[in-house]
Design a protein that fits this description.
The protein contains 3 helices and no strands. By secondary structure, it is mostly helical. It has one domain.
Length: about 60
Amino acid sequence: MARAMFEYTKTVLKKVSFNTELFCKELEKAISRLLPYEIDELRIWINQLIHEKPELNVCLVLIKN
């Protein structure tokens, strides 16, 4: 079930990546729901997404340690 939540989170984040504010809000929700190792995986995935959409870089503050 947890893996399904991780995949769902990536889908939602990809869909709202057109809007930095929405992306940050959804990222905050994801951080509160996901397991620590999933957050690490999400951080890697977001870094890859930022190469395509550099404007999302501001949201990394939420996920950095």
